[in-house]
Amino acid sequence: MNKFVFSFSESGSLTVDSIKKITDFENLYDNKNNNILKSLLGGKGFYLANMTNMGLPIPAGFTITTQACQDYYKNNKTLSSEILSEIKENIIKLEHVSNKKFVSPDQDSKDIMPLLVSVRSGAKISMPGMMDTILNLGLNDNSAQKLVNITKNKEFVWDTYARFIQMFSSIVKNVPKSEFIKIESNDYDFLTKSKIYKKIYEKFTNTSFPENPYEQLHEAVKAIFDSWHNPRAKFYRKMNKITEDGGTAVNVQMMVFGNMGDDSGTGVAFSRNPITGEKKIFGEYLINAQGEDVVAGIRTPEPIGKLQLKMPDIYAKFEDITQKLESEYHDMQDMEFTIENKKLFMLQTRSGKRSAQAAIKIAVDLVRENKITKQEAIMRIKPEQIDFFMHSGFDQETLENLKPISKGLAASPGAAVGRVVFNASEAKQWVANGEKVILVRQETSPEDIEGMQTAEGILTARGGMTSHAAVVARGMGRCCVVGCEQINIANDCFYVDNTKISKGDVISIDGSTGNIYSGSIKTSYNKISPEFNIFMGWVDMYKKLTVYANADSSIDIKKALELGAEGVGLCRTEHMFFKKNRINIIRKMIISDTKKDRQDALDELFMFQKEDFIKMFLEIKNLPLVIRLLDPPLHEFLPESNELQAEISRDLHISLRDLKTKISQLHEVNPMMGHRGCRLFISYPEIAEMQVKAIITAALEVQNILKNIEIIPEIMIPLVGNIKEIKFIKNIINNTANIIINNKKLKYKIGTMIELPRAVIIADKLAEESDFFSFGTNDLTQMTFGFSRDDASKFLKNYYENNIYDSDPFEHIDESGVGELISLGSKLGKQQKSSLKIGVCGEHGGDPISIKFFDKLNLDYISCSPFRIPVAKLAAAQANINRSKV
What we know:
The protein is α/β, with parallel strands linked by helices.
């Protein structure tokens, strides 16, 4: 029995049970049947096999497995004799099922109908457009002529042959597509075009175009396997956190033709609207075309609703199949179909990419329809999709007074403003220089993936709602407008009627309406749907980690609470000092030469701090508010430029010379490892005294205002690495607080940030003096790796290119290093004091990948920016659900 190739030509021929008999995949993959099959057959092969078993009209074919791909790479990119033998065996079976033949160049039987096949990739996880596809394989001069004789459709045959030569040349032999585009612009008939295409192939390869269909097939299979490691596929996997191992399957399937005339066609459709989530078939089709014409955006297709008018019987069958597929897979389906001479064939189905709004609505609707559980709904939404609701759309009042310069198809919602660029490399370069860009293309191709990812939005002149640009943009959550046929792209500019938009000009595009505007438009936040609130209610039910916000003002706290924050895990008090009416006061404190002068400045700051804390406590009420005492080095409050230094010397009535001397004295070679954090309070205890006095006084006043609400401030000491440090500063805090509280009733907590490796090692000792730990993962990562997050970007890209690091350790927690320190510090702390509250307040607190790790460590809370709260909550719920399954 076959080991590497499996047929789906007959209903019931490809099942988990049949594969178990001849493979050891149950030991290699998890025990869930679908995952066994998908790991072996890839997503496309799995769905083709299952649709065949469902009795749907699927063109016969077979799947060359991911195991064969792994074997290919192990054998130095060679197809083994065993794989070649199994391919031939399955071609013979396909010939028998289809009553067609793989026609060799010298086969002379006149009544043989040639067997033509498509050769498509199919990884376990869908990667639309990232790997390669070859259609119409099996054509040669002999089989093409036989096809002409049988079909009596000369134009169809030579069109099909030309398409095959072009695809085979570009994909298998890397002949530049531009060479064929030059020919397309000339008015050649298809026969002449196919001959010219062959000459292009010969020019670039120094060989004749292969006529033997088995040779064509073998080369195509190798090309598909090779495409697993092409740059765009690798970038897509990295962007979507898909593992590099596993490889791709290859699906070889009998061709059905949508380009045989006006009773044939091809299309792509979704069982629900992928933009709004509405429960209604959404899609497009083209008459007399092949599937690549729709997907690549070469022609702008018709809405699928028109198919109901043109071919009502076909549409009714398609509608019935759509309902069956949704019932089978319990999810919105993305389907490809072909109509050949008024006969419908299904070529593919998969879970469809969808906008953020659609994802939420579909998930909630499926729960309402009893098709999935709430847990399943939670697991289907990507945390980054939630992030969409936290970002902006165009201000509607502004739009009312503006006229768009053009309009296309609204392919992916959102608002984008940026400078116009015309290719992916420009997009990357301009973004690297700090610009926001809109990528403008005739139509995008998979090669544009990095440019699409870095751009604020994408605009194309051609293509429909299921084109490459539309599908990939929706998956990225990127704003996109396609099929804007009014724009004419020239060199470094495009025209809309008499309006010229040059490279670098600013435009605004609306992915919700399709409108395009000249210039920059004010934005406002996207509207939260009722389904969003329902969904987030389910998230709260299933998460375990408490989610706090990093917030430095009452305004921040208000927004954070609106977005679902359960407290504040980090208030950075230094941010309060940078306001215009305060910065010079702290500068006066810094340059003071005597304690009295320093205390006078601190007394002024006290009033500001107290008022800020009153507003914050009134907003937060009885929820936790963790306030970090002053952390950064003092030099950060002093200016570097001569112009600002001169201005400050005038404002503070100090000579410029003395000011420069003071700045020079405060200069540090490595300030992030210098005189900052708790070290400041050991040098200047009066700073800590002022801050504690402001916190405690504010808490008492608010507690008196709110009456029955208990305010419990949580005071955090930064950068501790020595038990004596925390004892010294804790003594300052207690002495100051107790004098103010006196006989009044007020509780407060004292904790520390764990951001030094030494603090981790002595965490059990620090726990003796702490009510809580907060891991400051930004500094802990810096201190552990020994490089600054501000400077690391200069060289980390070389680490990614050479696979030394898989990702930025400041973006995703380094589990084996920094993660182990967090794990150790948590264990030591809890062993010493079981009541110790432990959380994370660095940037990793809003990163879904890191949150999964923090959930595994059984931390009490994470803290992140207000606009990341819903994202963090969803990631926490998903982590807990996944952990509960183990």
